[in-house]
Amino acid sequence: MTGPTTPQPHDQPYDLAGIGIGPNNLSLAALAHGVPGGGLATAFYEQRAAFHWHPGQLIDGTTLQVPFLADLVTLADPTSPWTFLNYLRQRERLYPFYFAERLHTHRAEYDAYCRWVSDHLPGLHFSHQVDAVRWNPERALYEIDHSRLGPTGETEALGRTHARNIVLGIGTEPHIPDPLRPLTEQPTVPVIHAADYLQHRERLLAADHITVIGSGQSGAEIYLDLLRHRPAGRERLHWLTRTDAFAPMEYSKLGLEHFTPDYTHYFHQLPETVRDDLVPRQWQLHKATDAGTLAAIHDELYRRTLDGGWPDTVLTPGVRVRTAGRLATTRIELHLEHTQQGTRSRLTTDAVVLATGYRERPLDRLLAGLDPYMRRDARERPRVDAHHRLVLDPSVTGHAYVQNAETHTHGVGAPDLGLTAWRSAAILNHLTGKEPYPLPHRTAFTTFGLTPKTAPAIPGQPAPAHPPLTPLR
């Protein structure tokens, strides 16, 4: 547990218990701490020993893809003591930041900022693994069973927490495609996910030939880092991706309005089949590569042609890995297929970096005790309502909110840091039945749909007004 906190009386329920302490639940904990009237009684649990945000991908010089205002709290409460600017003030770094004129902060700096919040915010319990969640109908409370972990991960003590409401923020996990999964389980030749890149970087650089698979931001940053540290003319790098091109992220001003509350409200009210069709087609909004990174890669490649010749590297889009296997104990053979040509080939390499993204962690194991109460959609995914709550049987009177587990119901903005503070404030407004954090009624110039989709009403609060549209006749 970090920071001073007032312990709850024995068996006294919390207003809200959180599972997982990533940026989303850290934001919620920070804003809950600032709710007028002394805040809410909260407890948040995380199995890791301390806060860490993608430690394997904090490559020197990499930045967030959202402005610094997309911190944990500012877009909901710029007067909060937990803002990024207050972090700089406490570290006496406001003037250096001011003169740096940076809109996008370094990833390592964002990680340090979040750790600063987690070190000082009360009610956070690290080294606590949540084992099970149940609904107790007699007490009308959630029961959260957890284990306190020791330095090496062993269980030191068992505990149980009761809460009127819960919030799940267990985040995502690295995705490894099935053809490559067996290779990651045999450590003789490095086949690692981008999430672990920095831990294995020196071993990768020592390999004769390296293959990077995946063209999102992580794949581009890792390819560029490897390229910069390989000798000219002997780069020995392959960069492969299933997408049809090494495409830039959609970063136009109106395109970014897909990451606003307005679009989230619109998306949630679309039919399920429309939502499922839409998300994959929007990959360039959030799974492509920053144009600046692509430019830096081209600049580095161009620089290596100045003395004549071409760098020893291959960049090929439109390629999928069909199967893969090991050659003896020292090399890997990738069986490739070009999706447009319909051709196949083999690539022998000494190391593979899988920049194949992340997937939402499944909730089923953790919420097995709630399964009888849970409502699911046509594809057996948990239904999530407009207030970011799991849709449960009406007999469950406590709310179960989710964060970064609702892309299928709330769209591509679900994991976006720019919506973190807004979603936390929306959850707290709904939970309290008040409006401790007034939220804007309109956030985009774009009107999504012919009929405006309004924000869900807070109990006891008037619905926001929207400008009328003239219906077509």
Kindly summarize this structure in a few lines.
The chain is an alpha/beta fold and 473 residues long. It has helices at 23-33, 84-90, 94-100, 107-120, 181-184, 197-205, 217-228, 261-268, 272-281, 283-286, 291-303, 407-410, 420-432, and strands spanning 16-19, 42-45, 124-125, 128-136, 141-149, 155-163, 166-168, 172-174, 191-193, 210-213, 237-240, 313-316, 319-327, 331-338, 344-349, 351-354, 358-360, 400-402. The strands form 5 sheets. It has a 5-stranded parallel beta sheet, with helices on one face. It has a 5-stranded parallel beta sheet with strand order 9-16-10-11-12, with helices on one face.
What report would you give on this structure?
This protein has 473 residues and is α/β, with parallel strands linked by helices. It has helices at residues 23-33, 84-90, 94-100, 107-120, 181-184, 197-205, 217-228, 261-268, 272-281, 283-286, 291-303, 407-410, 420-432; strands at residues 16-19, 42-45, 124-125, 128-136, 141-149, 155-163, 166-168, 172-174, 191-193, 210-213, 237-240, 313-316, 319-327, 331-338, 344-349, 351-354, 358-360, 400-402. Helix 1 (23-33) crosses helix 13. The radius of gyration is 24 Å and the shape is globular.
